[in-house]
């Protein structure tokens, strides 16, 4: 890893390269062991340069945003993590178009839309995480999805080449997209919104965020909804019907407030959370015959 460190110093400043990083500081679950290296590129050229160095050296690597949909194992990650968050978060508004770097938070992009009297992103204003991650998994809430506003994206393939997608080329579906299918890294997103009335936009954002606070356990570390919605069912209802509301393994708990959430009550480990996820899946399958599928990603062994 020392040789990789030296090569990356030709692309990044020293303060953009971190070693032995506790991943509990970079994930919303607040758990996880150390990453051997975490880098903070601030431009498309830097991301592409880092990827090419790592690919040539066959060093395992992964891209993350704010870690709001991620569990890093207690053993950590022996490769390199590229973090695209505040370091990669420029937002440009031009008429009804918003262009955002992948690390821009959905909250910040939604705020920019409101400030510029643009409607269509109200549903996203309370979704945690970055715009790049939200586009990759076609995040949605309250009847809206990222596919409703995304018109063009710039991404990076595993070879380090820039890929531009437009319209239907994104292959958006329920919590899926072309980015997942082709292992593409979202870099920049162009969104088309409609002109609206600022007061109306703000009121809708406030109403949706109030509903979120009322129904979701936002006071404890979590990764949002742990499971995808099975067709014809609601994951939270299946979990509640299986008698798992409040069920704990170690410091991990099925939320009393919303059974679709698993929360860190304060001293959970990644192993606690992963074990609880598997336990919930097994119990729900025994009770209903439905096999739940995780939304969260698990990194490291």
Task: Write down how many β-strands occur, each being a DSSP E stretch of 2 or more residues.
Answer: 19
Helix content: 25-40%
SS class: alpha+beta
* Spatial sequence of strands, sheet with the most strands: 6-7-13-11-12
Total tally of structural domains: 3
Poorly predicted regions: none
Question: Which geometry do the CA atoms define?
Answer: globular
Order of helices and strands: HEEHEEEEEHEHEEEEHEEHEHEEEHE
Give the percentage of residues in beta strands. 25-35%
Mean pLDDT: 95
Number of helices: 8
**What is Rg?**
19 Å
Highest-level CATH class of the largest domain: Alpha Beta
CATH architecture of the largest domain: 2-Layer Sandwich
State the major sheet.
5 strands, antiparallel
Through-space gap between termini:
19 Å
CATH topology heading of the largest domain? Uridine Diphospho-n-acetylenolpyruvylglucosamine Reductase, domain 3
Protein architecture, described:
The chain has three domains: 2-86, Uridine Diphospho-n-acetylenolpyruvylglucosamine Reductase, domain 2 (2-Layer Sandwich), CATH 3.30.43.10; 89-213, 2-Layer Sandwich (Uridine Diphospho-n-acetylenolpyruvylglucosamine Reductase, domain 3); 218-299, UDP-N-acetylenolpyruvoylglucosamine reductase, C-terminal domain (Uridine Diphospho-n-acetylenolpyruvylglucosamine Reductase, domain 1, Alpha-Beta Complex), CATH 3.90.78. The longest helix is centred in the last third of the chain and has 19 residues, at 270-288. The strands form six sheets. A five-stranded antiparallel β-sheet has the order 6-7-13-11-12. By secondary structure, the chain is α+β, with helices and mostly antiparallel strands. It has helices spanning 2-8, 44-56, 106-115, 131-136, 178-182, 198-215, 235-241, 270-288, and strands at residues 17-22, 34-39, 61-64, 70-72, 77-83, 91-94, 97-101, 118-119, 140-141, 144-145, 150-156, 162-166, 185-192, 194-195, 222-225, 248-249, 252-254, 261-264, 297-299. The radius of gyration is 19 Å and the shape is globular. A hairpin with a 6-residue loop joins strand 17 (252-254) and strand 18.
């Amino acid at each position: 890893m020392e040789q990789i460190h030296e090569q990356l110093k030709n692309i990044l400043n020293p303060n953009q390269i971190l070693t032995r990083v506790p991943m509990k500081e970079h994930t919303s679950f607040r758990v996880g062991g150390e990453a051997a290296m975490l880098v903070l590129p601030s431009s498309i050229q830097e991301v592409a340069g880092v990827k090419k160095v790592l690919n040539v050296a066959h060093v395992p690597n992964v891209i993350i945003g704010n870690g709001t949909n991620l569990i890093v194992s207690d053993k950590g990650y022996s490769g390199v993590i590229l973090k695209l968050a505040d370091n990669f978060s420029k937002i440009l508004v031009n008429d009804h178009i918003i262009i955002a770097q992948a690390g821009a938070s959905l909250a910040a992009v939604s705020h920019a839309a409101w400030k510029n009297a643009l409607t269509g992103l109200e549903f996203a204003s309370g979704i945690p995480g970055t715009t790049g991650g939200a586009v990759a998994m076609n995040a949605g809430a309250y009847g809206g999805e990222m596919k409703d506003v995304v018109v063009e994206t710039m991404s990076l393939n595993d070879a380090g080449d820039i890929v531009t997608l437009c319209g239907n080329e994104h292959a958006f579906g329920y919590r899926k997209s072309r980015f997942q299918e082709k292992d593409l890294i979202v870099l920049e997103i162009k969104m088309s919104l409609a002109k609206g009335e600022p007061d109306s936009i703000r009121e809708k954002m406030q109403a949706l965020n109030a509903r979120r606070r009322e129904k979701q356990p936002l006071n404890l570390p979590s990764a949002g909804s742990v499971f995808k919605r099975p067709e014809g069912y609601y994951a939270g209802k299946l979990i509640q019907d299986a008698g798992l509301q409040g069920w704990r393994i170690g410091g991990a708990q099925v939320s009393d407030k919303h059974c679709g959430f698993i929360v860190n009550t304060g001293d959970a480990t990644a192993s606690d959370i992963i074990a609880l996820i598997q336990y919930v899946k097994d119990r729900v399958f025994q009770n209903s015959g439905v096999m739940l599928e995780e939304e969260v990603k698990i990194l490291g062994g």
